[in-house]
Amino acid sequence: MRTLLFLVLVGLLSGTRPIPKEFMDSPPEYFVLEWKEGIRLHHEPTDFFIEIDSYGRQEVLALVDEKKAPILYTADIATPVCADGECKLMNIKFYWTLLGEYAGFDRYPMMPLTKHDHDVFEEEDYQKLHRLLNDDKSPLGRRTIDQLVEKPTMRTVNGVDAISGATITQVKEAVVSGALYSCYTAWHLVHGDIQEQLKAHTLATLDKETTQHMLYSVNPGYQLFALNHMDIPEYGTHYEQLAQIFRTGTPLVRSIVAKRLTSKFKDVPQLQRPFWDAFEIVDSSSRSLMIKYLAQAPDYVPELLSKKLGAMSKNQLKGFFNYLRGNNVLQTQTRVNILEFSKSENQTYAYLAREFLEELE
């Protein structure tokens, strides 16, 4: 009977939520993506739901722009959180990216999240929860709730399983103090089966506009996804953005772009120049990968790289000179640039250039 009364109370409390606006014109309060100024997002139904134990299915909606292009997924969540014999209702609005990854959340100011002893979350607690939810490798994903407390004691209070005990050291700093169960529940709601379902939905409805939106995002995950779903004409159309991604992206994104230099841009050598121009400003792994593809590079690349020898590591210089050894013709300006480098007293590996030039004599 008490359990039934609790569930009735949960239903009443959920009715106190604010009525959602017709459109969304500002970013979530806690958000990991960039927000396009002036955008207005509208809710559209999907076929997806999150199942909340003892509380039923809760709908996941798509947020689309004025052109009906999907931008985010969202769900209003109300779920009982029970620990130490006490049950409270957690009201929160989650957001996911188009790839099903955590994007952020909104709180309900009139229904704040709470900790033990009815203490409400402070701003730093919400920030900590945000960081936790943004960590898809959190130990919370590998452990059950009873494995997160020292010497857990299980007992039943009012028909609900309750857990008491101190939070283990491995996760203590990552979760909000006094709100382990809330953090655990929120993390698993965000990172549960819904992620793969949302990603599959995006794939099933993918079009060129959505792919382009992802390509021009600063989200590395979006950029990688777009790179793997573009055809050859699109690479030529958007090569300037690809070059920008190559200059500023993560090493993983750069590695994908570098591999495309010898496939997608094989027959358009002039479009490769922005990438080779960025040689000295990218990370060392990307430089090594580019040198690996020198055999398929345009004719102008050896001379261009001969001006950037100071940016190369010892192994990269060896790879560059080995490539030149395999060529029958060494351009005059390339030789001049190597000679200048070989005479530098500030370059640790200048001797490699001298040895290479001596071999040619």
Walk me through what this model shows.
This protein is of the alpha+beta class. Helix content is 40%, strand content 18%. The chain has helices spanning 2-14, 123-133, 169-172, 180-190, 194-204, 208-215, 220-227, 232-237, 239-248, 251-260, 273-277, 284-292, 301-306, 314-325, 332-342, 350-360; strands spanning 23-24, 30-31, 41-52, 56-64, 70-83, 86-96, 102-106, 153-157, 160-164. The strands form 2 sheets. Strands 1-3-4-5-6-7-2 form a 7-stranded antiparallel beta sheet, sandwiched between helices. It has a two-stranded antiparallel sheet with strand order 8-9. Helix 6 packs across helix 7, helix 7 runs parallel beside helix 10 and helix 10 (251-260) runs parallel beside helix 12.
